Please model this.
Amino acid sequence: MTTFSSRKRALTPALKRAILGAAILPLALGVAACKKADNSATSSTPSVAAPSTPPAGKQWNDVIVPTNEGGLVMGNPAAPIKLVEYGSLSCPHCAKLAQDGMETINTYVKSGKVSYEFRSFAIHPQDVPLTVLVRCAPTEATFGLIEQLFMNYDSVEKRSEEGFPKAQAAQNQPPAQRMITVADALGYTEFFSARGLSVDQQHKCLADTAAATKVAKESEAISSKGIEATPTVFVNGAKVEGTEWNEVNKALLAAGAA
Model:
């Protein structure tokens, strides 16, 4: 897997300008840098209520609802255990967490005991077009696309590194074209088109500069809460110590997920 240090060297100031443009530059991208959080948290006392019934013909992990904060919640809205992740779509630590734990998280969500909310935290400049593209899909497909990004992290990263020089050249383009050029250069439109999102639709979403600005503002709001790393995970409002799946799962089990 590509290390964070190699990723950090690749992200030149010119590339940041190319991706974000003047309207989004105030966001302090890269400060968190996927560093692991070191704050401890306590687990909630197990208290699991009987889940309500999912909508007809669906399982709880088919139920996905956007939140006012820009997050996405999968599962029973009345679930007694709330799992919340602040994650970067280009972060290797977030990818590792998903690779190790997503199958079990889906099992917990299906039970109706756990809901899982993902909040995109754009700490790397490429997180902006990635988040815009994930949101370009129908809501019910978003978690699947996020999971696909994380499960294919190595190949996505390799392809994006190959396109960095071409992405850097986008900095002189008009804002509405800039994100399109960057996403094409880094292979993102190719990745999502292979998963059912047409290139034309992606380009339309990327040309909407308001969508990119929204991602930036949401990330600024996350940062203002003191979130400084990805992934940062909470179980029932208590911050999980560490970023590895065994640490997150321990907190979920202590809350009564199994």
The first helix runs from residue 4 to 10. Residues 64 and 140 are 6 Å apart (CA to CA). Strands lie at 64-66, 72-74, 81-87, 114-120, 232-235, 238-239. The two ends are 31 Å apart (CA to CA).
